[in-house]
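Researcher: Quick test of sequence recovery. Tokens follow.
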């Protein structure tokens, strides 16, 4: 039986172990290096969810880069609200820079689409997106994602930065809502 946890009132089962996540992050870092080495990119992790993914990804970046954070929110409980709040917006100096959005999950695609449009309006030299998780069956807005860690089914997940009403972000693995 898979390891299970309870977050608030819901039961979750282990879906992606820490070892599996870390192995995929190393692969993504190598892929990014092949296109970003010597370009001094700005990595833009999307808070709150991408903080763990970004931290582990940056441990494998062995070339000059910057990291700045943006914050976007679109969830309440286990549902997307359909609106995007950005209490921490884009840094001012992204024109003609190589930008990498670091996202925890592409669910509906609305948040990422909104962020990508804002960045493109600032005329970066290039724009790449890396997301740890991607739910292709749930996407309602066309988005561009260059690097995907794992494609997952349309089930709610917690752990490794992802939360359920602010709990579960600290978990080293990713857990899926149990049936």
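Model:
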């Amino acid at each position: 039986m898979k390891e299970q946890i309870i977050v608030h009132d819901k039961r979750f089962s282990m879906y992606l172990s820490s070892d599996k996540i870390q192995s995929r992050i190393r692969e993504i870092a190598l892929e990014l290096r092949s296109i970003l080495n010597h370009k001094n990119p700005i990595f833009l992790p999307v808070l709150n969810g991408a903080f763990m993914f970004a931290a582990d990804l940056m441990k494998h970046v062995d070339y000059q880069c910057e990291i700045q954070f943006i914050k976007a929110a679109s969830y309440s409980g286990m549902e997307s609200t359909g609106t995007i709040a950005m209490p921490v917006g884009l840094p001012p100096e992204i024109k003609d820079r190589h930008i990498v959005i670091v996202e925890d999950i592409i669910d509906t695609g609305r948040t990422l689409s909104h962020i990508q449009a804002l960045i493109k309006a600032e005329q970066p030299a290039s724009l790449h997106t890396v997301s740890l998780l991607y739910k292709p069956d749930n996407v309602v807005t066309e988005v561009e994602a260059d690097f995907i860690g794992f494609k997952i089914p349309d089930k709610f997940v917690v752990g490794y930065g992802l939360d359920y009403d602010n709990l579960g972000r600290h978990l080293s693995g990713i857990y899926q809502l149990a049936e």
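The chain has one domain: 4-177.
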